[in-house]
């Protein structure tokens, strides 16, 4: 397994704007195979992540309108490379605030330094953000000014303490004047609702994201009122697995800063509450160049909370030319090129349900669409974890100060689709 | 273009990107390349000037721009001489960027690259581990064949470095050297073997990586490390975990017997080879003996389980494939939940995971059936994901769920994504053949689709119906008639061809329609697709044979058209058919059988999953994804019929274990036990079992699980302190005591930079642990208790004894010729120094060889390396001619062989002199019992141990000869030994008091093993190097 040989970053218009080689140089022309595959695939989403060429294999990911194409020479678990490439993109995001072509080009030296540290001879070396930040400090305006005056550099000259310790994810010597620990319990409902409004499939997936700003070496333990709800959990490496297995308590020494503590799936035995319903009537008349479109959204099983941030996205059939709609609430846009209808609804007030209705103009002469489009719905409910999961308490050991603790709950729509 | 590149010349930094894009797209136009080159020349001039300036900021700027050029794939090679000069820059950022440059261009400019080598060689000795490591990284990344020997040396040294981070980099360097020069293989395997023994979790992943790269077939190197790797696995970094798990999967398939019951195999037809007649007997034999899983096999399966919870998809997949390939089939079920979880991840991960699930779901439906709905397709999924999900849904379809599935499929067929709709139709066809109950329903559904408005859907339906009808000998005249009508409207060639074939095949069932179809086709023959033409010919032939009265002329007309067709395949086929069906004088015996040939019963096509044959690849591999054998794919072997000797995995219990006091051992056991996450259930058994086991190491293999566990625990208890640190974070409670104790001890002994750092760290993590544990109060008490205990203990064993031998060899300090008649010699009296207990005492004899008095002899300016201290002798007023005087002084060498330089002055002159101590003189002998020796040795293993094999004539291996040789070189004390073949010596370093344990163990023949255990690995290895030649010479 020789892992990653080279990396090319390619933007949407097919320009290779960065290349990095960890071994001998591989010519850019290897990317032609990638472009070929890209052409064959109708859209970017369908470019196969693994491509075989006569001398190399190309494994790519698509992130934030960029392709990360890695060149591989020998057998390697493809997920290994994919997972690593995403980690690279995450790191860029973390360092530059966004993972875009402009950001990468502006920081090309830091990007190079990062890539150099993240991979040695094609094998991952340091991927923990806490370690990398000790080796290479993220750019800030203040620092670049200071550096230009004092001549100091962004590059650390000692081995990050994390590299050698048993807790590589945490940097040493963390100090804050305000010690805070915040946890966001974010649950997403994935659902497929069929034409008649009954649930074909529904599932709750959750994550707990943490933002920890605590001095020293805090040892935290987080317990739940109802841990049995969590069916399948994946952990940040900091969590002590044993403790979870025996007591269902999350015990860990946290990384510094933002990180994902766990992600979980709520056991499928529990019935999933569906907080919204959609009444819809979409029809296209035979041999006529118009159709009717009428949808109404209403609250259902919303646990007495307000449903907000509602957006409905519909990929209309190709024959739709334009849409003439009126809405009782929010605003809508229809993009005649991509045929995407977006309706930004906002909050639901039960007194007056938001609706969107009107006429659809079809290409004349074309056969009427076979199928009605599915509605993709986004929404958000603050201060509610739809599964009922509740954090019981957070205790800190190992440090003397009293931290400020906070837990926030949010429920969102995940892949929430209504078939019509 | 030239103006383009000119303007680009004026810009700097990010602005160049747009031009570059154009270059990248226009594939190497020579003029463009030239324009670029000429402008580069000019641009590079100012870069060169910047690099040559004395200001770091200018250099840094230049380097940043150069790196920018490299990143864009532009040639910056001509700057090499200017860049390489900065390789020794003090500014770490410049240095790093120079490294980036070097690695990129060294291969092209090999001669110039050599200029930088000495800098790296120096950096390899730097006290800062990050610098040592990065020097090794760059040195090994420079692909210049001339430096292979230097690389080899650097790797060897780095593999014994104190810092696990440097050792990790050494493991990486192994692969680089191997790809540069495969002839170094044997030597590299030696290093790999050594590093495999390393107990640091940091090194484990990298060295296994090197193993896979250099010598994946040397499975024998793994045996002894197998249990250690299994136990460390949870704490290894995630990337290393993937590599180790894949390697261990291969290992398990060669070392253990199959845990799959015979019944299972029959069920999924996985191992057909068992079924051959020859094996029959063996098989029944095997059945009689109940299967028991090798405890090591179980260890692997158990220790990988927690990793299913990893956030890293690659780790989860690695564990999943391990379970799939080596666990009993009843246990593999637990992986499905985790794999389904990965489906929430990004599309690339989904793609790979779905592929693997597809392969699995063919063989073991049951595993994924509960998650059926997780594979339901959303309209927003990319097509490749949709088709994979569909594939899995098909594999999972059975009598119970087919009606739900068909309803779901109905939605898919209507999808706007036509490619996906077509795939769904294929799927319905497969379900129809696999599940007899629904065949008719499916067929009806498909027929309905024939009236679909979309041509692709109709075409696909036709193709599928054709296949279905072929499988069904039942009459389906109506459907065929319906399809014949479609010929008027449908244009897709495959569909037309399928319909024609179907009509030809069933021409006797639709006698009225078939000739009519042929008539229509004859009319449109010339404008049809080749595929369709072939089928028209076919149809004509079949009708000619069954219904020649109506179709004879038509067929001949078609045959004539075919004869002059542009496509040679069609001309060929026409000629062939004509000969076969049209009787003439030349036609041979074959034409008699023409009807049988054309209308033979044709075997129905099998509608199979495209993932059917993928299972011979190891899951999760690139080869599996591509369904072709990728370069470097390592075949997973079949289970052996009979398990190879399991005892090879037993770690040699070091003999000293035998003589530990029961109390001491119990302590070790207790504390070590909790380090591994899974060991709790064995708590009771491991104590008792390890007793018996330590009596005879070879037995332990048969002792079953508890024995194994005890074994590995013991193993772990020998870990170095840094190793223990890595464990302590995971656990709480009991072991805090032990770690703390260890630390206090380690701290007392080691003063080296690295050691200290590590201690600090473990201390902090300890204290946090201690407070988190439930037994907070008691733990702090016992901690201090054990601390004091351990201190008194260590004091006891390190009592300095009198030197057993004082060599009389003197060293020249100042020669009389260079000292203008003053000569000075020094020797080491091996006495504790009276000036300070960290100093080495030295006696200097001064001689006056002149004929005049030398006055005021004293020590002048001292040039000592940092840390070294020196106690000088009192000035000598005068030394008579021919007179001599001996004075003593003391130097604290800080346990290193650094040279102490100072000036020896007389009234008139000053002479610079140096004293560099032989390493053996940095020691003081220690009296110690054999028991203590073994105990201390047990704590100084792993990276604290160096060893070498010595070959010499047997007469040199008598205890007295060895004794004489060793004490001649080093100031050590002999330890009384119970065995004749083992000589032990103990000493402590003068400065820090670290133990230095020397063991010479005579082996069979004329070899002996020389082992040195010490925390001071540097002087340990120097001592080893000095002892080795002395012991082997006659």
UniProtKB/TrEMBL annotation, chain A:
It is a peripheral membrane protein. It is found in: Golgi apparatus; Cytoplasmic vesicle membrane. Transmembrane segments: none annotated. Its main location: Golgi. GO terms for biological process: anterograde synaptic vesicle transport; intracellular protein transport; postsynaptic neurotransmitter receptor internalization. GO terms for molecular function: small GTPase binding. One of its GO terms (cellular component) is axon cytoplasm. It holds the Pfam family Clat_adaptor_s. InterPro entries: Adaptor_comp_med_subunit, AP2_Mu_C_sf, AP_mu_sigma_su, Clathrin_mu, Clathrin_mu_CS, Longin-like_dom_sf, MHD. Residues 178-419 form the MHD domain. Keywords: Cytoplasmic vesicle, Golgi apparatus, Membrane, Protein transport, Transport. Part of the AP-3 complex, an adaptor-related complex which is not clathrin-associated. The complex is associated with the Golgi region as well as more peripheral structures. It facilitates the budding of vesicles from the Golgi membrane and may be directly involved in trafficking to lysosomes. In concert with the BLOC-1 complex, AP-3 is required to target cargos into vesicles assembled at cell bodies for delivery into neurites and nerve terminals. Belongs to the adaptor complexes medium subunit family. This is AP-3 complex subunit mu-1. It comes from Macaca fascicularis.
UniProtKB/TrEMBL annotation, chain B:
Its main location: membrane. SUPFAM superfamilies: ARM repeat. Coiled coil: none annotated. Residues 922-1032 form the Beta-adaptin appendage C-terminal subdomain domain. Residues 1-11 have a biased composition (Polar residues). Gene3D superfamilies: Leucine-rich Repeat Variant. Residues 760-898 form the AP-3 complex subunit beta C-terminal domain. Residues 678-696, 705-726, 778-791 have a biased composition (Acidic residues). Residues 765-777 have a biased composition (Low complexity). One of its GO terms (cellular component) is AP-3 adaptor complex. Keywords: Cytoplasmic vesicle, Golgi apparatus, Membrane, Phosphoprotein, Protein transport, Transport. It is a peripheral membrane protein. Belongs to the adaptor complexes large subunit family. Subunit of non-clathrin- and clathrin-associated adaptor protein complex 3 (AP-3) that plays a role in protein sorting in the late-Golgi/trans-Golgi network (TGN) and/or endosomes. The AP complexes mediate both the recruitment of clathrin to membranes and the recognition of sorting signals within the cytosolic tails of transmembrane cargo molecules. AP-3 appears to be involved in the sorting of a subset of transmembrane proteins targeted to lysosomes and lysosome-related organelles. This is AP-3 complex subunit beta.
């Amino acid at each position: 397994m020789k892992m990653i040989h080279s990396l090319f970053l390619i933007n949407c218009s097919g320009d290779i704007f960065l290349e990095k080689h960890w071994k001998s140089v591989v010519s850019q022309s290897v990317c032609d195979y990638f472009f070929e595959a890209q052409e064959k695939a109708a859209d970017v989403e369908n470019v196969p992540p693994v491509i075989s060429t006569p001398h190399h294999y190309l494994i790519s990911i698509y992130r934030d309108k960029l392709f990360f194409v890695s060149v591989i020479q020998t057998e390697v678990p493809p997920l290994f490379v994919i997972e690593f490439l995403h980690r690279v993109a995450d790191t860029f995001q973390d360092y530059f605030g966004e993972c875009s072509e402009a950001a990468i080009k502006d920081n090309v030296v830091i990007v190079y330094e990062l890539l150099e540290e993240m991979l040695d001879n094609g094998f991952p070396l340091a991927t923990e953000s806490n370690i990398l930040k000790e080796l290479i400090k993220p750019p800030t305006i203040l620092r670049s000014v200071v550096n230009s005056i004092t001549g100091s550099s962004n590059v650390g000259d000692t081995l990050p303490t994390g590299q050698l310790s048993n807790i590589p994810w945490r940097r040493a010597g963390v100090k804050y004047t305000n010690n805070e620990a915040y946890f966001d319990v974010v649950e997403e409902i994935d659902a497929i609702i069929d034409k008649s409004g009954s649930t074909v499939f529904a599932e709750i997936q959750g994550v707990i994201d943490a933002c920890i700003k605590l001095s020293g070496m805090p040892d935290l333990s987080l317990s739940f009122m109802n841990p049995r709800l969590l069916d399948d959990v994946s952990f940040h490496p900091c969590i002590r697995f044993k403790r979870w297995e025996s007591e269902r308590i999350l015990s860990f020494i946290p990384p510094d800063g933002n990180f994902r503590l766990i992600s979980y799936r709520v056991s499928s035995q529990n019935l999933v509450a569906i907080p919204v319903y959609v009444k819809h009537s979409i029809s296209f008349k035979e041999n006529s160049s118009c159709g009717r479109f009428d949808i109404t959204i209403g609250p259902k099983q919303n646990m007495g909370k307000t449903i907000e941030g509602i957006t409905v996205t519909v990929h209309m059939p190709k024959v739709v030319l334009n849409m003439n709609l009126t809405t009782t609430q929010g605003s809508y846009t229809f993009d005649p090129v991509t045929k995407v209808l977006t309706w930004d609804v906002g909050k639901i007030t039960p007194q007056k349900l938001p609706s969107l209705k009107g006429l659809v103009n079809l290409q004349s002469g074309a056969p009427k669409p076979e199928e009605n489009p599915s509605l993709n719905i986004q929404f958000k409910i603050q201060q509610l974890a739809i599964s009922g999961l509740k954090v019981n308490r957070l205790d800190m050991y190992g440090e003397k100060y009293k931290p400020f603790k906070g837990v926030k709950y949010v429920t969102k729509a995940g892949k929430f689709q209504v078939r019509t | 273009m030239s103006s383009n590149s000119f303007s680009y010349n004026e810009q700097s930094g990010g602005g160049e990107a747009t031009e570059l894009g154009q270059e990248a797209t226009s594939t190497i136009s020579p003029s463009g390349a030239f324009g670029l080159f000429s402008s580069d020349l000019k641009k590079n001039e100012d870069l060169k000037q910047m690099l040559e300036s004395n200001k770091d900021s200018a250099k840094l700027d230049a380097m940043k721009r150069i790196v920018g050029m490299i990143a864009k794939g532009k040639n910056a090679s001509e700057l090499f001489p200017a860049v390489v000069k900065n390789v020794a820059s003090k500014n770490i950022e410049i240095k790093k960027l120079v490294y980036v440059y070097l690695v990129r261009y060294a291969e092209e400019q090999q001669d110039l690259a050599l200029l930088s080598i000495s800098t790296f060689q120096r950096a390899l000795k730097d006290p800062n581990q990050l610098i040592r490591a990065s020097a090794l990284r760059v040195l090994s990344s420079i692909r210049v064949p001339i430096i292979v020997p230097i690389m080899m040396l650097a790797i060897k040294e780095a593999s014994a470095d104190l810092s696990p981070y440097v050792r990790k980099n050494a493991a990486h360097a192994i692969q680089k050297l191997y790809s540069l020069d495969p002839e170094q293989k044997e030597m590299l395997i030696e290093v790999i073997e050594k590093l495999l023994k390393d107990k640091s979790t940091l090194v484990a992943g990298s060295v296994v990586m090197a193993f896979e790269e250099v010598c994946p077939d040397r499975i024998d190197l793994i045996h002894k490390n197998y249990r250690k790797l299994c136990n460390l696995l949870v704490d290894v970094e995630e990337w290393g975990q993937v590599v180790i798990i894949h390697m261990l999967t291969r290992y398990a398939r060669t070392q253990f017997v199959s845990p799959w019951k015979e019944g299972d195999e029959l069920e999924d037809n996985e191992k057909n080879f068992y079924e051959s007649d020859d094996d029959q007997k063996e098989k029944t034999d095997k059945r009689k003996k109940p299967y028991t899983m090798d405890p090591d096999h179980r260890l692997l399966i158990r220790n990988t389980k927690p990793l299913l919870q990893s956030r890293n998809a690659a780790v989860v997949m690695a564990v999943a494939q391990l379970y799939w390939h080596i666990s009993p089939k009843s246990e593999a079920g637990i992986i499905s939940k985790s794999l389904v979880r990965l489906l929430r991840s990004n599309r690339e991960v989904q793609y790979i995971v779905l592929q693997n699930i597809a392969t699995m779901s063919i063989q073991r439906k049951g595993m994924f059936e509960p998650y059926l709905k997780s594979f339901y397709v959303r309209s927003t999924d990319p097509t490749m994901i949709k088709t994979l999900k569909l594939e899995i849904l098909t594999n999972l379809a059975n009598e119970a769920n087919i009606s739900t599935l068909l309803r779901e499929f109905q939605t898919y067929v209507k999808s706007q994504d036509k490619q996906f709709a077509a795939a769904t139709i294929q799927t319905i066809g497969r379900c129809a053949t696999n599940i007899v109950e629904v065949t008719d329903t499916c067929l009806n559904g498909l027929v309905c689709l024939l009236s679909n408005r979309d041509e692709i859907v109709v075409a696909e339906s036709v193709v599928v119906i054709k296949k279905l009808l072929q499988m069904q000998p039942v009459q389906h005249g109506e459907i065929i008639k319906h399809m014949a009508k479609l010929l008027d409207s449908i244009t897709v060639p495959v569909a037309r061809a399928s319909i024609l074939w179907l009509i030809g095949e069933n021409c006797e069932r639709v006698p009225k329609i078939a000739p009519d179809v042929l008539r229509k086709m004859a009319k449109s023959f010339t404008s049809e697709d080749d595929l369709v033409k072939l089928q028209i010919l076919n149809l004509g032939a079949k009708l000619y044979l069954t219904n020649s009265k109506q179709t004879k002329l038509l067929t001949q007309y078609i045959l004539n058209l075919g004869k002059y067709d542009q496509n040679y395949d069609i001309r060929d086929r026409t000629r062939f058919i004509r000969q076969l069906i049209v009787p003439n004088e030349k036609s041979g015996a074959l034409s008699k059988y023409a009807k049988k040939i054309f209308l033979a019963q044709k075997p129905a096509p099998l509608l199979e999953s495209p993932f059917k044959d993928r299972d011979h690849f190891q899951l999760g591999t690139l080869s599996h994804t591509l369904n072709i054998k990728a370069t470097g794919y390592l075949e997973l072997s079949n289970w052996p019929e009979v398990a190879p000797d399991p005892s090879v995995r037993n770690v040699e219990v070091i003999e000293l274990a035998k003589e530990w006091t029961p109390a001491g051992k119990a302590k070790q056991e207790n504390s070590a036990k909790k380090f591994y996450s899974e060991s709790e259930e064995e708590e009771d058994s491991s104590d008792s079992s390890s007793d018996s086991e330590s009596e005879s190491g070879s037995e332990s293999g048969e002792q079953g699980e508890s024995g194994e566990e005890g074994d590995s625990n013991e193993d772990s208890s020998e870990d170095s302190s840094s190793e223990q640190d890595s464990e302590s974070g995971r656990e709480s409670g009991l072991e805090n005591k032990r770690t703390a104790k260890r630390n206090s001890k380690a701290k007392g002994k080691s003063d080296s930079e690295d050691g200290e750092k590590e201690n600090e760290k473990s201390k902090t993590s300890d204290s946090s642990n201690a407070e988190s544990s439930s037994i907070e109060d008691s733990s702090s008490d016992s901690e201090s208790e054990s601390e004091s205990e351990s201190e008194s203990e260590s004091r006891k064993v390190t009592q300095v004894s009198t030197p057993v031998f004082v060599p009389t060899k003197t060293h020249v300090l100042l020669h009389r010729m260079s000292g203008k008649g003053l000569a000075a010699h020094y020797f080491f009296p091996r006495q504790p120094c009276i000036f300070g207990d960290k100093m080495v005492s030295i006696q200097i004899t001064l001689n006056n060889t002149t004929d005049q008095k030398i006055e005021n002899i004293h020590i002048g300016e001292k040039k000592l390396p940092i840390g070294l201290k020196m106690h000088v002798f009192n000035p000598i007023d005068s030394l008579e001619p021919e007179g001599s005087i001996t004075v003593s002084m003391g130097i604290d060498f800080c346990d290193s062989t650094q040279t102490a330089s100072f000036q020896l002055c007389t009234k008139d002159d000053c002479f610079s002199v140096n004293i560099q101590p032989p390493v053996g003189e940095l020691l003081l002998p220690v009296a110690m019992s054999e028991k203590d020796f073994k105990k201390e040795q047990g704590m100084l293993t792993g990276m604290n141990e160096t060893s070498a094999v010595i070959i010499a004539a047997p007469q040199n291996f008598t205890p007295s000869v060895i004794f004489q040789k060793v004490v001649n070189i080093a100031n050590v004390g002999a330890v009384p030994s119970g065995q004749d073949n083992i000589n032990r010596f103990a000493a402590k370093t003068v400065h820090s008091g670290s133990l230095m344990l020397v063991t010479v163990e005579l082996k069979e023949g004329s070899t002996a093993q020389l082992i040195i255990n010490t925390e001071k690995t540097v002087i340990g290895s120097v001592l080893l190097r000095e002892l080795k030649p002395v012991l082997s010479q006659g």
